[in-house]
Amino acid sequence: MDHLSVEEGHHPPVGLEHLTFREEPLPVFVTAAVAGGAKTVCMSVNHPGVHDRRVLRESLARLKASDISISMGDGFVISPKAGLDALRRRLDVLAEFGTPFANACAFEPDADLRRDPDYVEDILGEFCQLARSVEVDVLLEFTPLSHVPSLAAAAGLVKRLDQPNLRILVDTLHLARAGEGPDDIRRVDQRLIGYCQLSDGPRASESPSAYLDEANHERAIPGQGEFPLEEILSLLPPDITISAEVPLRSLKQAGVPPEDRARRILDGSRRVLARARLLR
Question: Who contacts 249 (Cβ-Cβ below 8 Å, separation ≥6)?
Answer without folding.
Answer: 217, 218
